[in-house]
């Protein structure tokens, strides 16, 4: 099997998934997923819980395996060999619902760990990067605190900075605001909007439809492991084509 | 009962009892260090992709935890020389204590590792770190912190278990006190004093662990 197949030029999409299928035993979690994301494109992925949206983005950095189909990240076929997987993971940043900051490291150390150990940057370089990105998520003054000393919103912004310290080409967001108290959602969304405006390629699993309207180039709606509908947000919200989509939108926008 | 207490032999033997305490400390500290290495190494092998390595650890843990320490130390001291491995009492005791404590430490530390949320591993992997780095840099410290009280009591137990090394006459508190007792027949006075000494040693160990914990695990958690 050809594990690293890099095509020259930048004509290929940043991420392409072709015919991706995944089973948990007899249960099919992903059904024939075909998605292509261009450089700089922002995708919002939504759908009811259990629809496979988290599983889908977790396949992109191989936190989940899949049984059929092909995923390419920036032209590299994501095979099952550790080397390719590590290479892809360094290009793909991920932000989790539960933040997953490392509790025993300060905010600054959280941001420096992977640049030091995975990219082998010098301490000075890693620290410079970390401080700059903490500045960007407006949390520079908390650099020496531990995660447990921060609010949820602050922790999630640190998590975004930590991912950005790897200078990824793509950012994946897995329900980044779902675990937050309502008053902290905005600070995280604002950070994500800022990132989008700078041209980052983003795939966000989120139910923040305001964010989808403002930022997304395309909204992809999934149900039961399959892509049901995809459209630009204006069209997606005003004129959803499928019954399943209308029902979902009715449920989340209805109150 | 007309027994008159006479601590004279104990007082005369005090210098050798105190240096014997150092012997006990040496056995305990070296045994703990070895047990920690075996404990962490065992947990790594226990999670290995290679099934025989996992089985090896399981068999080791079961074997050690279900046999008496006295038999284990006799085995190393009296049986191993038949295979050409001949060790002095002190190294024998350290190895036996390390192996015995290590088997318990594997199970304790494994519990700690399992208590760390899967998200920590995933966050490390997503950042491009490989599995070994994730374990060493992300999982290990919080895992040790989580089980540190259990590890402390296991290691205090290990400290007290050093007394069994007197059976192969390793240099430690119990064997020295036995000598004083058999010379003086002052059983009550000798073992009363030794009991106090062991209490103090245990207490010192616990203080040592508390200090270590306060330094090494100082980060706040929710």
Molecular structure report:
Chain B: InterPro entries: AA_ABC_transptr_permease_3TM (IPR010065), ArtM/GltK/GlnP/TcyL/YhdX-like (IPR043429), MetI-like (IPR000515), MetI-like_sf (IPR035906). Chain B: It is found in: Cell inner membrane; Cell membrane. The complex is a heterodimer of chains A (255) and B (222). In chain A, strands 6-7-8-3-9-10 form a six-stranded mixed β-sheet, sandwiched between helices. Chain A has a four-stranded antiparallel β-sheet with strand order 2-1-4-5, with helices on one face. The termini of chain A are far apart. The radius of gyration of chain A is 18 Å and the shape is globular. Chain A is 38% helix and 24% strand. The N terminus of chain A is likely disordered. In chain A, α3 packs across α4. Chain A is of the alpha/beta class and 255 residues long. By secondary structure, chain B is mostly helical. Chain B has one domain: Orthogonal Bundle (MetI-like fold). Helix content of chain B is 78%, strand content 0%. Chain B contains eight helices and no strands. In chain B, α2 crosses α4. The radius of gyration of chain B is 21 Å and the shape is elongated. Chain B starts with 7 loop residues before the first helix and ends in a 6-residue tail after the last helix. The mean pLDDT of chain B is 95.
């Amino acid at each position: 099997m050809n594990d690293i197949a890099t095509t020259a030029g930048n004509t290929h999409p940043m991420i392409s998934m072709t015919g991706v299928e995944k089973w948990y035993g007899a249960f099919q979690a992903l059904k024939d997923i075909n998605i292509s994301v261009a450089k700089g494109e922002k995708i919002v992925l939504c759908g009811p819980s259990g629809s496979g949206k988290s599983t889908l983005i977790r396949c992109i950095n191989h936190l989940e395996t899949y049984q059929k189909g092909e995923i390419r990240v920036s032209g590299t076929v994501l095979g099952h060999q550790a080397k390719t997987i590590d290479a892809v993971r360094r290009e793909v940043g991920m932000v989790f619902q539960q933040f997953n900051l490392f509790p025993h490291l300060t905010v600054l150390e959280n941001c420096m760990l992977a640049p030091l150990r995975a990219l082998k940057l010098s301490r000075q370089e890693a620290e410079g990067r970390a401080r700059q990105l903490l500045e960007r998520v407006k949390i520079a003054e908390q650099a020496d605190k531990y995660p447990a000393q921060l609010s949820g919103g602050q922790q999630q912004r640190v998590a975004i900075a930590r991912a950005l310290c790897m200078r990824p080409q793509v950012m994946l967001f897995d329900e980044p605001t779902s675990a937050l108290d309502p008053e902290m959602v905005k600070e995280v969304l604002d950070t994500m909007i800022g990132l989008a405006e700078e041209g980052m390629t983003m795939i966000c699993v989120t139910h923040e439809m305001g964010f989808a309207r403002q930022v997304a180039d395309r909204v992809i709606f999934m149900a039961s492991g399959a892509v049901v509908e995809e459209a630009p947000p204006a069209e997606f919200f005003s004129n959803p084509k499928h019954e399943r989509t209308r029902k979902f939108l009715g449920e989340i926008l209805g109150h | 009962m007309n027994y008159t207490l006479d601590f004279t032999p104990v007082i005369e033997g005090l210098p050798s009892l105190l240096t014997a305490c150092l012997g006990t400390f040496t056995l305990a500290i070296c045994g703990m260090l070895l047990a920690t290495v075996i404990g962490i190494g065992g947990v790594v092998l226990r999670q290995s992709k290679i099934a025989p390595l996992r089985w090896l650890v399981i068999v080791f843990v079961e074997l050690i935890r279900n046999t008496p320490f006295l038999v284990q130390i006799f085995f190393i001291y009296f049986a191993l020389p038949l295979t050409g491995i001949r060790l002095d009492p002190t190294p024998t005791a350290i190895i036996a204590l390390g192996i015995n404590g290590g088997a318990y430490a594997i199970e304790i530390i494994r519990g700690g590792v399992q208590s760390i949320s899967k998200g920590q591993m995933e966050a490390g992997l997503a950042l491009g770190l490989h599995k070994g780095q994730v374990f060493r840099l992300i999982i290990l410290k919080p895992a040790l912190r989580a089980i540190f009280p259990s590890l402390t009591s296991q290691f205090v137990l290990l400290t007290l278990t050093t007394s069994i090394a007197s059976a192969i006459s390793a240099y430690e508190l119990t064997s020295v006190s036995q000598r004083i007792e058999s010379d003086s027949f002052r059983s009550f006075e000798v073992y009363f004093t030794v009991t106090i000494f062991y209490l103090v040693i245990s207490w010192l160990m616990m203080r040592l662990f508390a200090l270590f914990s306060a330094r090494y695990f100082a980060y706040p958690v929710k």
